[in-house]
Amino acid sequence: MAGEYGVTGYGYRQAVLTVYSSPTDLGLTGITEIFFKQPFNRLGYAMNFSFQRTYICPNPFNSCNVQIQNPSMDLINTITQYDLKKYKGRPRIEIRAGYSKERIERKSEANKLKTSLPLIYSGYPYEFYDNKILGGRTLNFSLFDGQTVNLYGKAARFFGTFAAGSRLGDIVNAMAKYGNFQIDTEGDPVSGLLFSTRTKSKLFYNGRFILQDILPALGRDYGFTMSVNAQGVYVCRTVLASAKPGLPVIISAETGMIEQPSRVNATHWQVKTLFGLPRVLFPGDYATIKGGFLEHYFGKNNNTVSGLVIDCDYSFADTTGECTYTVAPEGEPYVSMPFLQQ
To answer: What is the pTM (predicted TM-score) of this model?
Structure first.
């Protein structure tokens, strides 16, 4: 339930939605904070939101559905008053959520809470509706990732040629610059080697879509995938070699795991945790699932499985909150592009 402390000592499950309005003629930006309700203050609303992120990104767009119960008219106006025919000038909304020990009692303390919670989503509204219900009303709206909202209307295409022997990383970065979005090709130890690869033949593009067509095709040819992180930056990761950066995050009953892990297929595992415990994980994170249930598969005294998080489903509501992760023990999503392994 809202505000329940729990035995882990992580604090209260909390969330903050920050609405940045479009710049005025003076260059200023108005801000509205929406807090998840808690028993120790009267600042918040009942709210819920849900979205997915994946290591495998054939579709470049990612949306987040949000619902606020009994919103004020000022809040509704802040979120919904923009030109529906244009993408420029829409408010930007950032979502921070997880567990925090901060117990703020007034809006002036918002930054204390925000700095204690991870940023898990940023985007712009593109669809909303307001429903009257018995005893109140609900505001529902959907968000686009921060990088894709400006591309959705104009759908960036590329016209140009790359000579044989061009560096793969230079091609990918040129696409990002041409399409006016941010991209990261250096996120794991083997990405640098992959993106230094030289093309064997000339590449010619005559108006093909960058995000929907060109980059997915290059990923299939050279062995990398894309996902969008919380800041709206496209992250490229190789699928041709295992990448295990740093120590894994331990997912167990003691750190927030709920129910039992389940086997998705011969190599992948799915695990569910309380929202934000042991922390909010994103595609590309390295994790270890730990539990006695795994001994049924790996034998006595072998109760762990480690791998790369390749798929995440986030769900936060007034009474419940959970995250569902798919973990690939070999460190890569083999089944996404099986022909690359042949």
So the answer is: 0.82
- Return d(Cα 309, Cα 284) in angstroms, integer: 5
- In this structure, are residues 91 and 115 in contact, taking their beta carbons and an 8 Å threshold? no
Domain range list for the chain = 12-148, 155-238, 249-334
Express as a percent the part of the chain with pLDDT over 70: 83
In terms of CATH architecture, what is 155-238? Answer: 3-Layer(bab) Sandwich (3.55)
Quote the distance between the C-alpha of residue 104 and its chain's center: 26
CATH number of 249-334: 2.40.30
CA 101 to each of CA 6, 13, 38: distance values in angstroms, whole numbers, following the listed order:
11, 9, 12
C-alpha–C-alpha distance, residues 103 and 166, integer Å: 55
Q: How would CATH label the architecture of 12-148?
A: Roll (2.30)
Q: What confidence tens digit (pLDDT) does each residue in 191-218 have?
A: 777 888 899 899 999 988 888 788 888 8
Per-residue pLDDT, averaged over 34-40, amounts to 89
